[in-house]
Design a protein that fits this description.
Blueprint (H helix, E strand, L loop, with lengths): L1 E4 L4 E4 L7 E5 L22 E4 H9 L6 E5 L7 H13 L3 E5 L4 H5 L13 E4 L20 E4 H7 L12 H10 L5
Parallel strand pairs: 3-5, 5-6, 6-7
Antiparallel strand pairs: 1-4, 2-3, 7-8
The chain binds iron/sulfur cluster.
């Protein structure tokens, strides 16, 4: 199985989730958020196509990493390949964070994309909204985004936030209500 990446694996990140992480930058994103920091990752025919087995091999050789972070681009555009990578990361004892421009509810309602949820520990969801940008947020760019505890959300069958990172509830609720989603 192949995956299209925007860059090499990036080790030792401390800004893409908790702890020390290896970031997997996927290529291809349909959301085209105004103010996106990585517009070069939007095109589906750019970046470099690599074998998922190669990515897994690289992960196996890492040292001192707490987890992986799927970012991009939107990793859920290549969900099958990302599931394979997540499974492998879990086998290695690494936790998984994932950034997506989709809302959690949209992922859950998509029969293909939802298959990745059991392999994700934390999902940072929703598009980047320039008007809601703040430098005072944990692990996200704009206030509408949510840092979601996925195992808890699956168990409770509702969106459960990682409580220590949830201090802008009123703002993202407003955004989600505009989309017809109530949290
Ligand atoms: S979802 Fe992320 S990568 Fe895609 S356009 Fe929005 S900010 Fe950029």
């Amino acid at each position: 199985m192949k995956i299209r990446l925007a860059a090499d694996l990036q080790m030792d990140s401390i800004v893409d989730g908790e702890g020390i992480r290896t970031v997997i930058w996927t290529q291809g994103c349909p959301h085209h958020c105004k103010g996106c920091h990585n517009p070069e990752t939007w095109a589906y025919d750019q970046g470099i196509e690599v074998d998922v087995e190669e990515v897994k091999k690289e992960l196996s050789q890492l040292e001192g990493q707490d987890g992986i972070t799927l970012s991009g681009g939107d990793p859920l555009e290549q969900v099958d390949a990302c599931i394979e990578i997540c499974k492998h990361a879990k086998k290695l004892g690494m936790n998984v964070w994932c950034y997506t421009g989709y809302l959690y509810e949209e992922v859950q309602n998509d029969p293909e994309k939802k298959k990745i949820l059991p392999y994700i520990d934390v999902l940072v969801d929703g598009p980047f909204i320039l008007e809601e940008r703040s430098l005072d947020l944990y692990f996200k760019g704009s206030r509408n985004q949510r840092v979601i505890d996925v195992p808890e959300s699956l168990k409770e069958q509702k969106v459960c936030l990682v409580s220590k990172y949830a201090k802008e509830k009123d703002v993202f609720s407003r955004y989600q209500k505009e989309k017809g989603i109530f949290v």
